[in-house]
UniProtKB/TrEMBL annotation:
It is found in: Cytoplasm, Cytoskeleton. One of its GO terms (cellular component) is cytoskeleton. Belongs to the TRAFAC class TrmE-Era-EngA-EngB-Septin-like GTPase superfamily. Septin GTPase family. This is SEP12 protein. It comes from Catharus fuscescens.
Amino acid sequence: RGVQAHRLCPPRGAGSSLEPEERSMEPPAVPEEEEEEEGAVPLSMAPGPVGCQLFGYVGIEAVLDQMKIKTMKTGFEFNIMVVGQSGLGKSTMVNTLFKSKVSRKSSQPGQEERIPKTVQLQSITHVIEEKGVKMKLTVTDTPGFGDQINNENCWDPIIKYINEQYERYLREEILITRKRKIPDTRVHGCVYFVPPTGHWLRPLDLEFMRRLSKIVNVVPVIAKADTLTLEERAEFKQRIQENLKTHAISVYPQEDFDQDPEDRALNDRIRENIPFAVVGADQEHQVNGKRVLGRKTKWGIIEVENPAHCEFPLLRDLLIRSHLQDLKDITHNVHYESYRVRRLNESNQLG
C-alpha cells in the first residue's frame, strides 16, 4: 500500500503544497493492471467469510424476541381434518392431541351417535392457550365416510370442502382493498385413520389418499393399534408402505419438499415410521404414583404417551411440536399455490 501511495503522489514542485493533501482525501483511481500486479483486490470483489465477525453487540438476535411477542399477541391458526370410518377413535385422538375436549363428540355418556347416510363435514373451532401463546384450532370431522355399503365417490364432499376453503382465501386475496390479515380456513393437515385389519390397504383407502394427497397434506395412521400384536403391527406397516410406493402416493412429509440435508435426514426417520400406530385416550389413570393418559384393560394400562406402548408421541411431535409451521407453509406455497394458478388460468381463458 505504501508503494501505491508513493506512485499517486505528484512530483515535487508540481502544483501548490495543498494539492497532495486534497487528493489524498479522494479514493485513488488505480488502474486495474496495477492492482493485479500488486495483488490488490477491489473491495466489492473481496472474498469474505460467510458470517462476518462483529466487533460488538448489535442486537440482531432481538428480532426473534420481536417475532415471539407479535405471535403471542396475535396468535395463529391451525386447521386439522380427521377422516376415517366410525368407531376408529378420531374424536378421542384429537382430544388426546390437544389434551382438551376439542372434538365434535359429545361428552355425555350413554348418548348414541347416529351415522349419517352421506358424508357430512362438521367443523368446530376453539381458541386454546398455552404459556401465553394462543392458537385458533379448527377440527373438521367427516362422519359417514366409509360407513355405507356403496362408498363410491364418498371423497367428493371432502375434496369440495378443501377447495372451497382455498377459493375463500383466494377471493379475499385478490380484492383491491383486502384485509390486513386474511382469515385462514384452509386445511393444513388431514389425518387419515386406517382400520387395524392387519392386511393390505383397502381400495377405498388407496383411492382416497391418491386423490387427497394432491391437494392437502395427508398423514396416515393405524387406528386402535392396541388390537394388533407387535409382529402384526410391523408387518401391517410394511405392507402399507409398499402399497403407497406401488401406487405412487406421496403422503406427508413429501420427499420433494425437503429443503436441506438436515430436513431430509429428519423426514427420512419420520417416513420410516409412517403410518404411525396410535392409540388415543382422554382419561387419566394412576400408574406408579403418576397420572397418565391411557386405556385401562384387564391386563394393564396402555399409556398413550409412552413410546414403548404406541407411536402417538411421534404423531404429536409431527403435527404440533416439529412440523406445524411446515404444514402451514406447504399448504400455502404448494397446495394453495397450485389451486390459485389453476383458477387464475381458468379465469383468463374465460376472459
